[in-house]
Amino acid sequence: MQILVNENNLIISYATIGGFENGIEIDDSIVPQDFILHFKPKRYLYNEGTIELNSDFEEDTEINLPTVPPTIVAPGTDEELRVMFATMQVQLVQANLMVTELSQQNSVLAQEVVKINEEIKNIKEGDNNEDVIS
């Protein structure tokens, strides 16, 4: 979590995902249990690595909407995730088989290049022989 404090070390905002320019990264273990539920700018004070209630905090007389903690939406059901994982495993096996096949083809091609180079060498040596027609 990151917090944003003003010049008096009063917490004016927080982020559970992402952060702020000049934000302070804090460990979740120092965050009070009801921090997100009851958060209001300047209600909490960041003091030497701890978060405390601001004893001088005064509620605004304006209408304040309650802060609702964010809802985390999972990408799918457990079964959907299992199917996705199984599909990824199949794709990984297929990719490994393709790599193996390409490695074998590369080896065969390398052997053919060696043979061609030997033939070229033999032809060049043959050019030095007067009995060979180029």
List the helices and strands and how they pair.
Layout lengths: L1 E4 L5 E5 L8 E2 L9 H4 L5 E4 L2 E4 L24 H50 L7
Antiparallel strand pairs: 1-2, 1-3, 4-5
Short summary of the structure?
With 134 residues, the protein is an alpha+beta fold. It has two helices and five strands. It has helices at 35-38, 78-127; strands at 2-5, 11-15, 24-25, 44-47, 50-53.
Structural description of this entry:
- The chain has 134 residues and is α+β, with helices and mostly antiparallel strands.
- The chain has two domains: 2-53, no CATH class; 74-128.
- The protein contains two helices and five strands.
- The strands form two sheets. It has a three-stranded antiparallel β-sheet with strand order 2-1-3, with no helix packed on it. Strands 4-5 form a two-stranded antiparallel ribbon.
- Strand 4 and strand 5 (50-53) form a beta hairpin.
For the structure shown, list the relevant keywords.
about 40% helix; 2 domains; elongated; three-stranded antiparallel sheet; about 130 residues
Listing every helix as H and every strand as E from the N terminus to the C terminus, the arrangement reads EEEHEEH
Structural class: alpha+beta
Taking all residues together, what is the mean pLDDT?
84
Can you count the beta strands? 5
How many structural domains can be distinguished in the coordinates?
2
Radius of gyration: 35 Å
- Unreliable stretches covering 5 or more consecutive residues: none
Q: Please tell me what the overall shape is.
A: elongated
Q: How far from one another are the termini?
A: 78 Å
For the sheet with most strands, the description reads: 3 strands, antiparallel
For the biggest β-sheet, the strand order reads 2-1-3
Number of helices, where a helix is a run of at least 4 consecutive DSSP H or I residues: 2
Q: Please give the share of residues in helix.
A: 40-55%
Beta strand %: 5-15%
